[in-house]
Amino acid sequence: MFSLPGYQLTGVFLETLFYGVNATSFAFCLRSLLTNDGKLRRREGINWIMLIIGSTLFSIASLDVFLNFTWCLQAFIFDNRPGGATAVFTDLGNWITLTTSATVLLQTVIGDGVLIYRCWIVYSRSWRIIIVSILLWIGATISMAFVIHIQATLHASGTVTARKLEPPNRSFWILSIVQNLLTTSLIVGRIWFVDRQNSKYLSAGYQRTSELKKVMRRIIESGLLYTLAVIITFITYACRSNALYVASKVEKQIVGIAFNLIIIRASKSRPNEYTMTSATVEFEVQMNHTSSTTTGTGTTNTRTPAVQLAISKDYYSFSSKEDGDSRKGEPQHATSISDTRV
């Protein structure tokens, strides 16, 4: 097994590799949010919420890479205290130790918040659906505050798995994992339900690859990437392993990568991205009424003008402006009937 400095160096190396992926995906994410068909979007056409969140996630990830590089320089070159690099990495009161611990918690909280926001959008801004997720998110945020406060006032040597930090840390990761699984399940369940309802009104012989299934696959893949990183980080913490220094560094980058991938892959499917519009079922019925009139000279057949009823019904149609487009909509059941006389 590695010593603590060995885990730190391994973590910095892997974080740098994932940071390259994060930086590349963030560049493509910016292009998706700021341009449309190669042209810059107007200010009102930019999804500022997604832009700000994406920039924040990338800024935190960049800060963490810089801090860990500085930390290694301090431990292996500039600091001459007894105990060497191990003494530097176990100084919980060190501002770099405190800041790097805070970044992984903050990055996770922001990632969880984005997931809840997407769930809120998919359910047509229904607060009732996400109330449990919000409570779990608030609990994780409070736990994060306790972790940072305890570590800042601890003034002791040890690792971030120290027993005094264990209760709030354990609470934070458990709440985050439960919230991730719950919210992702709600999003996927909603999309699956809508797609299932829409399929009832398509011809049995009509084969297609549902746009909703594509959206569902994107969310599952990106969501599992992030959730898996969180679970691995929690496992290393629960085992009180120094591998936590590796897992937590990678997890900070994966939060941003998962966010960027959803935006990038969504932009590839315009104009139907996050637009869930079902088939329109139309029926046309023509009614021609013929009456007979008997007079003294014979029978006369009278044909009245035909009445054409065009009935259409749209099922489960909703959309969102997740990628920056200014589309609006919400679940609806709309029926229209027109009466045309010929």
What is Rg?
29 Å
- Low-pLDDT residue intervals, each spanning 5 or more residues: 271-287, 304-342
Helix percent reads 55-70%
Shape: globular
- pLDDT averaged over residues: 78
* Tally of DSSP helical segments: 8
- Write out the strand line-up for the largest beta sheet, numbering strands in chain order: 4-7-9
Beta fraction: 5-15%
End-to-end distance, in Å?
87 Å
Category from helices, strands and their pairing: alpha+beta
Please outline the major beta sheet: 3 strands, antiparallel
Could you explain the architecture of this structure?
The chain has 342 residues and is an alpha+beta fold. It contains 8 helices and 9 strands. The longest helix has 34 residues. The C terminus is likely disordered.
SSE arrangement:
Layout: H1 4-34, E1 35-36, E2 39-40, H2 48-78, H3 84-89, H4 95-122, H5 127-154, H6 166-199, H7 211-238, H8 244-267, E3 275-276, E4 280-287, E5 290-295, E6 298-303, E7 307-315, E8 318-319, E9 333-341
Antiparallel strand pairs: 1-2, 3-8, 4-7, 5-6, 7-9
Helix pairs in contact: 1-2, 1-8, 2-4, 2-8, 4-5, 4-6, 4-8, 5-6, 6-7, 7-8
